[in-house]
Amino acid sequence: MQQTIENDVILVVDDEVDFANGVARLITKGFPNNPVLVRHDGPSALAALRENRCGLLLTDLRMPGMDGAALLDQALARHPLLSVILLTGFGTIETAVAALKAGAYDFLTKPIDQDGLYRAVSKGLERSALLAENRRLRAAVVTCGSCARFIGESPAIRDLRTRIEAVAATDYTVLILGESGVGKELVARTIHALSRRGSRRLVSLNCTAIPDQILESELFGHVKGAFTGADQPRRGLFQTADGGSLLLDEIGDLPPHLQPKLLRALEEGAVRPVGGSENVKVDVRILASTNQNLESRVASGAFREDLFYRLNVLTVRVPSLRERPDDIPILVRHYLRETCGELDSGDKELADDALEYLRCRPWPGNVRELLNFVRRLVVFCPGPMITQAQVRLLDTPGGGPTPAISRLEIYKDAKHRLVDDFTRSYMQRLLEETGGNVSQAARLSGLERVSLQKILRRLGMAAEGFRGRED
Length: 471
Fold this sequence. Notes:
Elements: E1 9-13, H1 17-30, E2 36-39, H2 42-51, E3 54-60, H3 68-78, E4 83-88, H4 93-101, E5 106-109, H5 114-141, H6 155-168, E6 174-177, H7 184-194, E7 202-206, H8 212-220, H9 237-240, E8 245-249, H10 259-268, E9 270-271, E10 280-281, E11 285-290, H11 294-300, H12 305-311, E12 314-317, H13 328-343, E13 349-350, H14 352-360, H15 366-380, E14 385-386, H16 388-394, H17 411-434, H18 438-445, H19 449-459
Parallel strand pairs: 1-2, 1-3, 3-4, 4-5, 6-11, 6-12, 7-8, 8-11, 13-14
Antiparallel strand pairs: 9-10
Helix pairs in contact: 2-3, 5-13, 6-7, 13-15, 14-16, 17-18
């Protein structure tokens, strides 16, 4: 689909008045949604660029005073996203090369051919649109202060950043809600970092990761001899976090017998170690998170109502990717750049239709699932451009999560085995999709034909066996 910047101005500059007006009429006929301005010298053209949002500049190369080359230099210095097409009656290779090296997008010779003009204008507008979109996406990644890690520009993510900054300015308990994989822990860490306690410790506890029988000791500590094996007194996480913040992750799964003890600790600002007889005062801000509906758990009797209201002083709900699909391309580009940097694999890009496929795909695992998928794309897709076909091939059971390692192996051996398993599955799906056509398979996978054939030989796979098996 052609991408243009509708309503962006096209500026035509030529000292030959009739010629400039004729070019403007042709462009107006072919691009009615883009206003066309005409100027006849360099200084007035620069003034028009300052006063209007121009997506494209067409300028004669030879003009009295400021010529087209000088106008090109000054225009791009002030408007780097502008696409510039040079027009001249002196169409030499040397002139064209010099113009392109100076930053011109295209070069047309007089007399102007209408079809050639329309192609150049369409491509120039498309280029400006893509450059503007890339700048917009980069700007969206670099957002407000410490909330920059919440990438996107949708209303949902902007509201999240606003709420984080608001609750961080207080010392109240915060309940963080959201589906699995949306980034609740990152929200908690950001709230802590922005708060007055940011220079002190943030201590985290996953309420489902500790066996029930030792969870109380983990939270509140214990005295020597409190139970078998308690040879030394131990400070709990409340005391460890004194002066800072304590994140209780998956608070909805806190065992019933510990809920009244947590409630008492929150109300009194003190904890009693297991086996102890005295309370210990603590100054801790509580951040709690869950992917469950706590009100439903209160209604069913699984969670104490008074504890729920004690925790639910301030609430931050983290939106799912389903609620902000337009942020997905921004996130993908960010994760792609980040992963390529981590792996030192060289820059990679996703084709526009591949990005659109990812934008429309459901992400039940939310940001965590998206990040892991992008990492697989970087590892398993060769070449600098990742196509939609490659994305689709990876987005299958065969291209999905790697099989579990059944026994502990030497790292290098385990890695080679898993990569071979993936490669075999990928090649089988690839040959099935292409009916054993090696040339088509090479194009689809982004591999050179010779490289693809080497892989098939190494795996002992024959393309001929897949011919006539297209779906």
